[in-house]
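Researcher: Next entry in the queue.
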Amino acid sequence: NEFVDFFVSSSFVHFRKPDADIFKVAIDISQSDVETSLYIDDRMLFVQVAEGLGLKGIHHTSYEDTKVQLAGFGLEL
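Model: Structure for this entry, 77 residues:
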């Protein structure tokens, strides 16, 4: 029942969003497959950058909306 397997802190990798390199570092360090990874953020620009790299993205606007979007990926809160 865990959703978060991994996170990257900009203070450790020396990149900041929306720089695509922070997403690339996260993908590399976690050895994740972008096809099965999901990125959630309340800033649409950051979601768009992640999606541009092949990640699935959710623009968080409210708990209920995000819950519905997560269900679309087979995840339930």
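Model: The helical segments are 10-13, 20-30, 44-52, 63-72.
Researcher: Noted, moving on.
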